[in-house]
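Protein modeling request. Please complete all fields; requests missing the sequence field cannot be processed.
Requester role: graduate student
Desired output: 3D structure, token encoding
Chains: 1
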Amino acid sequence: MSDFELVDSHVHYWQPSRRDWYPVLREVVPGLNHDYLPDDYARAAADVRVSGLVHVSAVSKPGTFLDEARWLDGLRGELGVPHVLIGTIDPAAPFERIERDLMAQAESPAFRGIRVLEGFDPSAETAARLFTLLGARGWVFDLLTHPAGMREYARAIERAPGTAFVLEHVGWPERDDPQEFRRWREGVARLAELGNVDCKLSGLPMAFMTMDPARLRPWIETCLELFGVDRCFFGSNFPVDGMAGTYAELIDAYGKITAELSADERHRVFVANARHRYRIE
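Delivered output (281 residues):
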């Protein structure tokens, strides 16, 4: 194992062979429709020293996220490293149900917040109430959007200054071309103006199906420029980013892109910032 330490702020485990909670895998990305469990992740990341993990909910079958939360909480003892959980909610449910579902997930001491895969309207009254509740409880909202949705999210976040937000997958650009880069950069710059938004450096291999540092560099360096090294942190998005290469190749790419940072800055990006944001002890 390498001495290179990291906290991985974005991983997924699933077991479709026994838990049919992931129809999107089966229908949209069948290449990922196989079990991926802690031992699989440990083998993938064997060349680095992972000192903390954030599991992010990925269920797509309605009504299964509380089952997933209980299952994942039970897995934590197998991991050997500190591990926290980002759950989810049903955004179409009445708010009273959303609140109950959050409290049910918070029965786990590892619960740190939520993300919503689809169907979430940041301008809705439900979103405003949700953001207030998350902020009051010290929970994080992991924000999943493409560039087109960034300005609407920015307006909503301005009204929730007491809540911590994390932009997942650097804002998930949809194409690797100059026009998309300009549109994406405008949106990211708007979110970076808000001091309660961090940026998760993840998901680009999923978006572009490559781990080529030259292709990823402009996007990663822009995030570091706009958010600063204190508000960016690494996430592997494995096994999804693994469609484009190995974990070792991913770390090699990020290592080359961040080579000009100081040792302290790299420690913040790869370890300290995620540990702080998600309270990984």
